[in-house]
Design a protein that fits this description.
Bound molecules: pyridoxal-5'-phosphate
CATH architecture of the largest domain: 3-Layer(aba) Sandwich
Strand order of the largest sheet: 3-9-8-7-6-4-5
CATH superfamily of the largest domain: Type I PLP-dependent aspartate aminotransferase-like (Major domain)
Strand content: 15-25%
Distance between the termini: 71 Å
CATH topology of the largest domain: Aspartate Aminotransferase, domain 2
CATH class of the largest domain: Alpha Beta
Number of domains: 2
Radius of gyration: 23 Å
Amino acid sequence: MNDPSRVTQPALSESNDRPSLQQALAAELADLDSRGLKRHRRVLESSQGARVRVDGREYVAFCSNDYLGLAAHPELIEAAREGAARYGVGAGASHLILGHAAAHHELEQRLAAFVGLPRALLFATGYMANLGVVTALAGRGDAVFGDRLNHASLNDAAILSRADFRRYPHLDLAALGRLLAASGARRKLVVTDAVFSMDGDIAPLPELVALCERHDAWLLLDDAHGFGVLGAGGGGTAAHFGVSSPRLIYMATLGKAAGVFGAFVAGGAEMVEALVQRARPYVYTTAAPPMLSAALLKSLELVRDEERRRHLRGLIALLRGRLQLRRWRLAPSSTAIQPLIIGANGEAVAASEALAREGLLVPAIRPPTVPHGTARLRISLSAAHEAGDVEHLAAALNALQ
Ligand SMILES: *Cc1c(COP(=O)(O)O)cnc(C)c1O
């Protein structure tokens, strides 16, 4: 026991036989790099918008989810400033302790009215909202059914819930129907993106709701990319289809079209109260700064204005009309997300780099974010773009392939 060699021996042989944690990670990172999958962050030096400054250079950006161009709107900045003056910068506590400010409370009421549902609950982020809903409503003995192209947060939520997790092929409602019919789970929860974040296509909500009614399932609709963009008044994908159902659990983020930060879940009063009591990412985290809710109260007023959506729809039609594609393929999307499917990772990255040399920022999206062989340029349009920006992009893309 007192012989030091007996203690140090195992440690020495371990370091000789096996790579250290650092060496193993370095090898994994080198492997990512060699497969064209290593991600790099650009440093944004301006506010978010159609025109940005990155690494000392001005660009027209087609990268943001700020679909209505509100992220740096002067009225939102002023509302945040006033919110900070009234509430300070930090919430200082979780919602259930003393972090639930009047601005949060008012925003929840306004959001419920905005989407026409009985009650709404704020979450710090959309990622946490999805974790919160799924883990609060489904557990062992229950089943979660998800579209294969759902956002990562919905998949992570299902895994964390410990429910039986079944994935169905993208938008294949017949396959979903078979899975629902075969399930003997106590409670069934279908989870889906409303507008798919890497494809821009829209889930067929009326058919999904009918299927959930037939099989006594709940439907969690993640409307991160539809809220503010689709539907009259920007009410989102449910408003776009005119669908309402007591089975619908509506979730949307507030860091995309709404231009600020955070997320909310809306639906029946009992469902929302169950989240207040049980959703761990709600209970065990600090409330978002109330100044953000103050900014969001102003944002909701601006989101209502149809003019931004009208302009955005015009830009979508302009881009689709101007592109002359030979080898690449434009995904069938009518939303602000316009993916140009290229295929190979290296070619997508090269296209993105060529556009950047032209002063146009368009991100290349690669696996595992999208399926293998479908690397793409994900063009995000915003009401902050001008027609000339979109014409410039279309001309550059037409010259590239
Ligand atoms: C962005 C996004 C989220 C996450 O929202 P955050 O507020 O950014 O955490 C969830 N679901 C979808 C479909 C998204 O696009």
